[in-house]
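Consider the following assembly input.
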Amino acid sequence: MSSNSFGKLLTVTTFGESHGPAIGCVVDGCPPGIAIAPEDFRHDLERRATGRTRHTSQRHEADEVEILSGVYEGVTTGTPIALLIRNTDQRSKDYAKIADQFRPGHADYTYWQKYGIRDPRGGGRSSARETTMRVAAGVIAKKWLADRHGVQVQGWLSQIGEIVPHGFDLSAVENNPFFWPDTRQVTELELYMDALRKSGDSVGARVDVVATNVPPGWGEPIYGKLDGELAAALMSINAVKGVEIGDGFGVVAQKGSAHRDQMTPQGFASNHAGGILGGISTGQPLRCSVAFKPTSSLRLPIDSLDTHGNVAEVVTTGRHDPCVGIRATPICEAMVALVLMDQALRHRAQCGDVGEVTPRIPGNLGG
Amino acid sequence: MSSNSFGKLLTVTTFGESHGPAIGCVVDGCPPGIAIAPEDFRHDLERRATGRTRHTSQRHEADEVEILSGVYEGVTTGTPIALLIRNTDQRSKDYAKIADQFRPGHADYTYWQKYGIRDPRGGGRSSARETTMRVAAGVIAKKWLADRHGVQVQGWLSQIGEIVPHGFDLSAVENNPFFWPDTRQVTELELYMDALRKSGDSVGARVDVVATNVPPGWGEPIYGKLDGELAAALMSINAVKGVEIGDGFGVVAQKGSAHRDQMTPQGFASNHAGGILGGISTGQPLRCSVAFKPTSSLRLPIDSLDTHGNVAEVVTTGRHDPCVGIRATPICEAMVALVLMDQALRHRAQCGDVGEVTPRIPGNLGG
Amino acid sequence: MSSNSFGKLLTVTTFGESHGPAIGCVVDGCPPGIAIAPEDFRHDLERRATGRTRHTSQRHEADEVEILSGVYEGVTTGTPIALLIRNTDQRSKDYAKIADQFRPGHADYTYWQKYGIRDPRGGGRSSARETTMRVAAGVIAKKWLADRHGVQVQGWLSQIGEIVPHGFDLSAVENNPFFWPDTRQVTELELYMDALRKSGDSVGARVDVVATNVPPGWGEPIYGKLDGELAAALMSINAVKGVEIGDGFGVVAQKGSAHRDQMTPQGFASNHAGGILGGISTGQPLRCSVAFKPTSSLRLPIDSLDTHGNVAEVVTTGRHDPCVGIRATPICEAMVALVLMDQALRHRAQCGDVGEVTPRIPGNLGG
Amino acid sequence: MSSNSFGKLLTVTTFGESHGPAIGCVVDGCPPGIAIAPEDFRHDLERRATGRTRHTSQRHEADEVEILSGVYEGVTTGTPIALLIRNTDQRSKDYAKIADQFRPGHADYTYWQKYGIRDPRGGGRSSARETTMRVAAGVIAKKWLADRHGVQVQGWLSQIGEIVPHGFDLSAVENNPFFWPDTRQVTELELYMDALRKSGDSVGARVDVVATNVPPGWGEPIYGKLDGELAAALMSINAVKGVEIGDGFGVVAQKGSAHRDQMTPQGFASNHAGGILGGISTGQPLRCSVAFKPTSSLRLPIDSLDTHGNVAEVVTTGRHDPCVGIRATPICEAMVALVLMDQALRHRAQCGDVGEVTPRIPGNLGG
């Protein structure tokens, strides 16, 4: 497995730099027979797009997906699906000044140490621009999961800075620019973000994702556990510093008698586990939560170093998000969907004939 | 990559069930020339061992490691190193009663759903007994990391239930049965655990791990990030529900101006990032934190289901830990060491000649 | 994928040196529900065993397989199956004399160059002893293939030195010590081998393998082609120098009009392709052929070098086969079976639902 | 590893159909610091190009490579290198007639059986058009191998039909359209090919490849052997039916006393092994040989089946090569180069420090 590839049976390989000619991906292992059209990618790319509102980076990319292969007469053929997006709104001049500086909190210094060379334009490969292709690949996974298994993957913002939702209404999430589950707080968030932008600072965020209708049995022990692969997938997103499954760090102070989810003839009585036991899905909703750090690209100047080891003042004048977590919601969804589809195929490979030999217990304990 | 294997260039494959004849592992990709003897495994296996104190499971396993291959005249040869531990203290009768029951909070139900069959003795493959081999493999990684790079990996318990350390003294960690960094609290912890055991209940815990002297440049973007692979490695340990790097979920409420670690000619001024930027090590101490759920094997009875879908009362009478997080400390260390050694080899493969072509900046900003 | 592992979804990892304490393997990814007992391995291990007749090496190994994991109450559970064979007939003293010599035609020099160290006892890891575990793993694959798909894998010797079979009778193959398809030549072969052994020399051989009842559709383009993976599997066997599929090198002088296998309503009219087109099985018998070099371990002395670069006379006094190709027949079968089972699982993963959506053409063109 | 990817540390993923909008590849794992420009690809793509002479297919593709990523200011950065070639000379109408027919000897039937759907335009994904990207990726590998290790990879045609070279002059190979090592036979070959084309038939061929200056020690036992990976790489090329290393199938009739290559203080006295022992390079020239079948796309009509199982006459009117082996020479070179570079990186990963600890024997036995 190369390090720019993700997934074992549904393998996504991404390429491209923030300000290079294009970004793209190859989705390999997708089953044949799925209807895919360029316009299918629009909705989620729009949700992730920078420039969507004044609260995110003002870079404007059309993000038009070209399908280069793997689809014939609108349907997948089982061969690798290559997707390409041309970069159109590059402003490499914005970055000329910092080409030999190490921006604090960015990958500038580590890429330099690792490779001895780096593309400084907009962070090059380490830019969150790469996540565009995760979202595009995720569209295919979401479609397959929904069509074949009725699985739905939905994320929302569950915290910005100190602010948490007062209530929870899933239908609200897609109706405000913050993926926020309580519309009553939208004005508060707008004021908060405006003040933040004015101050030149940024703030962290938390994203929650739930997948429903996941059948029991997906996930491979021991080193291919569903939760292990979710953790890898989500932690690999830019700016992520923490991942939780189910009750997450809340379990540290829990008693076993409170944590263990009781099984009843009507289904599970609770879901502290977050839909995974022993690395395998239980059939309950799969719940995970992700911590995004505040971006380090600030208008507030700071002393740093340059490639010669000299002190250099760094100020970000490019276009950046004061809260990168906001538009990370569809990225998290995409990664969850890609992990689930990959595991679904792996399950089919190893246990495809289990259903024929062994009766399962009556009823899906998904409650 | 099979699902019982871990690591790309240093690949560990484990096998074995809790109450089968033996557990073992194959460590493939280890460089030649490392001195390894059976007694090297004793210290860490002892640290992990059940039955070490009255606060952990009373299962007594000698855990004698036999080296079956890969070592000639005491030195690794570059061929796969197979390690074997015979299971000696199996009490399969303890489990006969629950063979057709689904213990809540365990993998019984999910293994049954996935495979249509399962080894019920002590949880079979899903038992934490498997982690013995992770610790054994980790010994090799720790040795190589220390010999070649001076890297030290050290973990400790940073929370049990609601109890957190009052002070922090690294030298205390190995001098008490709780891997606790403040000796003054040991009596408090003993009383707490005794009460817990008496009540038949269990509790969660948090383990912290730090690796020092990690050189800058280890870790592979984008899907082989050092933090992504640490997350996968740690989340794959039994009972883990959350993983953090650096400030972890603390970043959600942070401002960017506070989070970004300043670079100075004397080194980094802080380490909120936890030693990783863009998925690549910075040279600073690598910091991570792991949440362990309370074990669901309780003496407190609970209604559950059996394989026929009928209600069945489950009581655990076997030997179990009231806090599985305690002896998870060396397991977490082992996984961190295995990830680091794998990444070190991967870095050498791709960038082995960087040093020859490109001068790095003066000084290692590891401070 | 580590280099001592083979297969993507059915992954076999082998370990062990010729004269170490044991050899073994881990078979990961095997579906649950297959009946496996230690005695199942006996037949094929016996077929491969050295010491079977006076025409092969006189090393006598009991080759008793111990199943360490993955099987519960006689049935596979879906967890990794570890198999162990203790080495009992080691005579390491035989090799003391050549510990610092490079035997010509052996891996002594290359292992030394690669690793800077090697286990000289019987060739260590490079010994054909390793293939014992391939045969053992192959038993599981053969069983699954036969049970689920009716696939049969059968090999035979098709050439020793200049001698080729006069006739072909598949039922003869298992009734003589040469896996020879014409019993009338057995005496000729015995005399030939006796003379060869007396002369202290050795000779090459060719093994053919056919798999019948392979369904159409197995094999993954482009870099996971069925023929590509067969080539890798067979070329990885000790002493193999050539691999052919179907007509093999015979195609070089063929015309296209003669080579292309016509499709008729009654099935294919010929099988020059050997059952594979575009890397995917056609449903016809899968045919391959393998060239084994003559062993270089001869009683005839030869000047070579030692590890100090000095000239040293090498004479093999240990136990060796005058024709290693003879007992390679079951090894080739095992590798073909492992490749087929792996591809079967991969096909099920990606195309498991093809049957439901798209009608296939009537009849299997397997003729 | 996905099935459209090749290589463990230098991983090449190709995509694209013969008559889709574009073909391309992603080369992941390439070390930083290598100078790469679009014009570097021209020479080898030209050598592979169809339409080069009247003896190959008359499809005319400009095959202009666009570098989409991984190169900054003309130098590789260590991030994935994406290469794109637009298809410009598609004539899909040529294929409309055979869209529901199975051409004998082609992958039409097997793709249909596997996927239940296929792109019939020019063979879609199964077309040799895909090998264009192998050649492009191979250019990068050839460059790195030459720059860092002085390795040269050179192929030639060693047989067309019954015709073999009378003499051998390496410098002749690039000076005739047949990659033929004896210029005196060029007229004979031209007449032979003209007659063949006129007859509407095709013929097979054999390609030899040699790599010189390969250092000893490259290649990973047991399942990552250098010869095993070469076999997989070469057998994965369209139309290949056989692969040989060193003396290949010639070893079947050899005696061990003749085959084993003697080691002397002046180097190896012969090279029957083809530069590989135990799966690891010896330092001698690496020799391999590949059999290409005659293409099945003939102007000679033949009865076949259509997707409804009915008999249908197939005649190829599109543009095809009467001998696909001719322009396969640079493809074989590319695959050998990719395998070697991958193994070089793997060797560096595991044994990078061998040189520091263990002295090798004096002199490189590469003679």
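Chain C has one domain: 5-351. Ask yourself how this observation constrains the way the partners meet.
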